[in-house]
Design goal:
Layout (H helix, E strand, L loop, with lengths): L7 H25 L33 H6 L13 H19 L5 H23 L4 H13 L3 H4 L4 E7 L2 E6 L20 H26 L7 H13 L1 H26 L9 H27 L1
Antiparallel strand pairs: 1-2
Bound molecules: zinc ion.
The site of zinc ion has 8 residues, from loops.
């Protein structure tokens, strides 16, 4: 593969514009997917328009980052202040794509998986932050994709691809490797995520809370729990296996408590403060994907 032979910095330059464009599309997903009316949820054929005055956005104003700078953060038609979230999400999309050749070997399955996961977390972080919604339209396909990504390793367990670490340093790596990453610059891999671990991750993340919820609903005749967080855990479990998924859950809960408890004490609202838990799961995921094994071994070292 020719592109995989390029050094990471050159790949980063080539990938950054795609990242900015995908970041721009992430803004469309973040704005439209949480809408109640199915027609307004259309993210494919409906052209970009100002959420305030509905005016069509001119093509050059729609350019990632550049458009926002030209407009100085205001709608050209009605002067509506465009939230800083829009250029921020575009920038994060660009950074995610540009950083990806350093985080995962370019052109391998784990690179694709890491990129999809990072992009999905970017979208879900902001839908949860702004609307407290984690849309099914994203989460159900991710559950299926997580399982599908474990299948190529069954057919081609020994397929290799050459990737670059640094000038003059090439590395052979498994094309369909599917596991966690212990550290940056892929000096090595954790054991691969098998289809069994992936399925168990999906079942534990979604199946168990769903069962509890159905029982609860039948007994109490109420709506029960919000399932968005569990669906998120389910696809994270399908992507990274059941054990890292539990790590993400515990770290996410810890981060949530670290932010939530002081907030509750300040407001004295007595447990009524709603926190977007999906945001904390999104923040916990890269920590577990890159450092999960090291954290776990460190923890075992402390307790034993
Ligand atoms: Zn406007």
């Amino acid at each position: 593969m020719f592109l995989a032979d390029l050094p990471p910095w050159l790949l980063a330059l080539l990938l950054a514009p795609f990242g900015l464009a995908f970041g721009s599309f992430a803004n469309v997903l973040i704005h439209r997917l949480p809408m109640e009316d199915p027609a307004q949820r259309n993210v494919v054929t409906q052209p970009s328009h100002c959420p305030s005055c509905q005016a069509r956005i001119r093509p050059w104003h729609n350019l990632p980052l550049v458009g926002w700078l030209i407009l100085r953060g205001k709608c050209a038609d009605c002067g509506w202040r465009i939230p800083g979230r829009y250029p921020l999400v575009e920038l994060l999309g660009g950074l995610l794509f540009a950083a990806s050749p350093w985080l995962f070997p370019f052109g391998t399955l784990i690179w694709f998986k890491g990129l999809v996961c990072g992009y999905a977390l970017l979208v879900l972080f902001f839908t949860d932050l702004t609307e407290m919604i984690l849309p099914d339209a994203i989460q159900f396909p991710l559950m299926a994709l997580g399982i599908l990504l474990t299948l190529p390793q069954l057919q081609w367990p020994e397929a290799l691809v050459k990737v670059w670490l640094a000038p003059g340093h090439a590395l052979q790596t498994l094309t369909f490797h599917n596991g966690l990453q212990p550290a940056l610059l892929y000096r090595g891999f954790e054991p691969t995520v098998t289809w069994e671990q992936s399925l168990i991750g999906l079942a534990v993340g979604y199946g168990v809370p769903d069962l509890v919820n159905r029982l609860y609903k039948a007994l109490r005749k109420t709506d029960g729990l919000g399932m968005g967080d569990f669906k998120m855990l389910a696809w994270l479990g399908a992507f990274w296996g059941w054990a890292p998924m539990l790590g993400i859950l515990f770290l996410g809960a810890g981060l949530g408590a670290a932010v939530g408890v002081p907030l509750m004490l300040m407001r004295r609202s007595g447990g009524q403060t709603m926190l977007p838990f999906g945001c904390f799961l999104a923040l916990a995921t890269p920590i577990i994907v890159f450092f999960g094994r090291a954290l776990w071994l460190g923890y075992l070292g402390v307790v034993s």
